[in-house]
Amino acid sequence: MSSLLIKDVLLKDRIVDVLIRNGRFQDIAPGLEEPEAQVLDGRDKAILPSFINSHTHAAMTLLRGYADDLDLHTWLTQHIWPFEHQLTFNDVYIGAKLACLEMIKTGTTFFCDMYWHMPATLKAVEEMGIRAALSSVFIDFGDPAKAKQFRSRTRKFFRENDRHERIIFCLGPHGIYTVSRDSLVWVSEFAREHDLLIHIHVSETRKEVEDCLQENGLRPVEYLESIGFLGPNVIACHSIWLTEKEMDMLARHGVKVVHNPVSNMKLASGLFPYQDMRKRNICIGLGTDGCSSNNNLDMLQEIKTGALLGKSSTGEPTVFPAQEAWECATINGGEIFGLEAGTIAVGQLADCILVDLDHHTLIPRHDLISNLVYSASSECIDTTICNGRVLMQGRKVPGEEQIIQEIKEWEENLKNRP
Ligand SMILES: CSC[C@H]1O[C@@H](n2cnc3c(O)ncnc32)[C@H](O)[C@@H]1O
Ligand SMILES: [Zn+2]
Question: What domains are defined for the chain?
């Protein structure tokens, strides 16, 4: 693999050269030389870790602006699921490519996904050069025939797919209201057997809690604990409607949680208990959720919204400070997915962004992280690098016009579908 040398770039408070070899940061110091390397001019730029979007549904870019302003249950059951029913492998592929393009343009190089036709997202990620954790979807609505189908599909997938340089495969049971108890137990055992992460929606709405209490006499996290589902390999997305007891359970089992502030606000799902989670040292990642409940994949917007919401929902301006919000989108994501990423340091994965320090949103520079969290738009991101490869430079991503064209044609053809 070739090497990359970024010259004279700002890293925290010093100007350095950054040498990348074989997809990792090899050396960081002033005055580095590497005769064969591709050289990037880092003057007037700062190097920072790229973002980790810990929960999304990438190909939902196709549903951007479709069915806005509804609650989760109405949105999913009456609009989203009927629409998704007609999506093909190719639809998901082009939707996921648009998502990858959007992520590269907004500085994200890793996302955790749960969506139909997962191999289509896999193909898009391979081509676009970023990283992902792709979930093998599981959703049976309590139907044993469907459960059987998903189990054999999952077994087959993991027999045929093993390690991948930029992709982690995980399990994606959708939620406790769409996956039967038997199937959740099966997923949990399969994950243990194959050492896999599990990505699941948990306690997103009040309705989910009420239904669970009615059906099982337990709240969602209590129910998951009762079936032996909780563990350090579980990534519980949303995690809004939790009691102190349930948060203690999450902490005890080392469950990781993902905060989705924009989606939670748009669907009016509820308020994520950030302080209560943090107090328990629960690892908190940040995610955009899909493009129909957000409606973009811009992690800078997610970071700012998370930080502001933490304050406005508690009436306490010290809650969710800029540095913590930044860490949720970088280093905490690395911890959730077991990636050596989220910081710029020798030996870490060479996933990073270069921001334009002369951008009007980044001056004056009393505090760069504060500017990035509270002031910046993604327009200040000049360069995105993943695995040591430059995916965007000067805000241009090779092939972006073609992706836009494909989506426009898809939209045109949609009108002619039966
Ligand atoms: C089985 S593929 C994933 C499935 O999840 C749906 N989805 C998107 N956003 C949410 C959300 O916030 N809560 C629950 N489910 C969501 C998506 O449309 C797919 O059907
Ligand atoms: Zn989701």
Answer: 4-49+348-400 (2.30.40.10), 51-337 (3.20.20.140)
